[in-house]
Amino acid sequence: MLQNPSILFFNCLGSYFYSIVEYMGKPGKKHALLYYLCGYKIIYKRLILDEVKEKYADNPWGYQPVSIIDTKNQPISINNDFFTYLYNTHNIIVKKIDMVGQEGLVDYIIRNNGKYCFNICHVDEYYIVNSLKFYMKKHNRHYLLVKHADPQKRMIEIIDSEKNNTYTVMFEELSQAFYQSIFRRKAYYQVDCSAFEDKVDRQLILQTYFSTSPSCAYLLPFMEDMEEKLATGYGDSQYYYRGYHYTVLSKIIPMVQMRNHLFADDKHMDAVKLTHDLSVEWRDLSNFMLYKINRNDYTFVSLRKKLDRIYVKERELEELLNSLL
Questions:
Q1: Is the pLDDT of residue 267 over 80?
Q2: Could you write out the DSSP letters of every residue in 239-252?
Q3: Using alpha carbons only, what angle is made at residue 65 by residues 21 and 222, rounded to the nearest 5 degrees?
Q4: How many CA atoms lie within 13 A of 41 on its CB side?
Q5: Nearest Cα residue to 14 out of 71, 68, 88
Q6: Mean pLDDT of all residues in the chain?
């Protein structure tokens, strides 16, 4: 059954493709899309707050000082390169339709609504009733994945990367969020998985992974950034804390999980244990940060010990992997 994303794969749009591959994949291979990341690496980049606010306004999603980049120092993006990878590796055909000036979004969805065909829509959350933070309060760009369309009831079951469960919207609500969005983009994706395959070559992935010279050099400056913003009364600690949580959730955890699966069956048991332990610790940190956010506790002191322990293990793993080259 198609489920809400188990991993925030770079952003909401990427997460829906992760859900689709997870749904289509065979047991033991449902995580296969993570291997797209094997040619990328994580870096730290100090952000200029004015530039971030100009692009993202007050949305803390914009404050993520850790990026995923390729060998040409280009940041990861859900673009044509990604769609080409989906086709070459999984026989998934993605058709992006620019609906500016075109009516009939719901008709497109109904026609493309099938067991192995999926629909993703760009929306403005200002018009989505279930978007409690934004509904009739703030405009915010987002994507939604259609799980099922019911023409008789004029309802659509939605998968939302910001929710743990699906919810339903009326045809009119989705059309309003799509067409009345203040954002110019009117992107609609049709995803055809009718010829799905898993053609992942694990040996090639390992070679590609090591070719990027994986390093945890990003981690210490990331921790220093957190300490500067959260422990010194630098400014809006809630804003920064949420941004750091998004960073861990959408940038670090996918890379760590990819690494964990990559070495899960490796003959070097120390690497197996360390990659597994770190995937657990990063996930625990993310959950702990969410717990603190819900308690309005945005202090750094509660994170320090966890981050120090992670840093020591990341350095140990880096040294171990370098010795295997």
A1: no
A2: HHHHHHHHHIIIII
A3: 105
A4: 18
A5: 68
A6: 94
Q: What is the DSSP string of 117-144?
A: EEEEEEEEGGG-TT-TTTTTT---EEEE
Our CA angle for 290, 294, 299, nearest 5°, is 75
Q: What pLDDT score was predicted for residue 232? A: 76
pLDDT above 70 covers a percentage of the chain that reads 100
65 backbone dihedrals φ, ψ, rounded to 5°: -80, 5
Provide the token pair at 206: 């390992």
Q: Is 218 helix (H, G, I), strand (E, B) or coil?
A: coil
Residue 204, number of CB atoms within 10 A of its CB: 11
| 3-state SS class at 161 | coil
End-of-domain residue from the set 192, 226, 242: 192
Question: How many domains does one find in the chain?
Answer: 2
Residue pointed to by tokens 């956010």: 293
User: What is the residue range of 149's domain?
Assistant: 93-192
Per residue, the 3-state secondary structure of 52-74, as one string, reads HHHHHCCCHHHCCCEEEECCCCC
Q: Where are the alpha helices (DSSP H) in the chain?
A: 12-24, 49-56, 80-90, 105-111, 171-179, 202-211, 219-231, 237-247, 253-262, 269-294, 301-324
Residues 155 and 214 in one domain: no
